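Give me structure tokens for this 190-residue protein.
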Amino acid sequence: MIIDTLMQQLLSRPYDPNGRTAARGKVLEPVLRSALKEKFFLEPPPKSAGREQFGATYAASFFAACRKHSQRPRAFLPADAIATATALTAESIADAVRRWALPLTAAAPIDVIVSGGGARNVTLLAQLGDRLAPLHCTVATIDATGLPAEAKEAAAFALLAYQTWHRRPGNIPSATGATRPAILGSITYV
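Here you go.
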């Protein structure tokens, strides 16, 4: 979300194709270290984030921090901000695996399956692989499971529809902030 928002704000592009912009940039370590202290990254799962947390306002403050810490000519600043946001994504995922997943699996190997736009960002996938390799984790895209990355939302909605059809809750209150499990949506017959 941060990568895409920065790409839109700084370069008028919807996303970073194949991670090419991030690959040209330099990670601004002080900005990365500071961003990793965000409350969201420190909270245990399950959790969910939206644009209200990491949208345009956050991206603008993230970019301001990048501008403050950049030592390179101004022309490099957009690529450095995208590189730093990409590193933030990779490091926050790796940190979550270290903190929350490994302790539950007795340090057994973990397969990390990447979906969404990240599955098409080779720079992000490489960084994630580098950070997770010492933890004996493998990184693959959702496509390797037989589900195309582009079908992720359709599959998620099909699962929610299945839950509704069978009168089962489709939410996780601890992740969504709901007060209780709830059957989502409704079934209408015409």
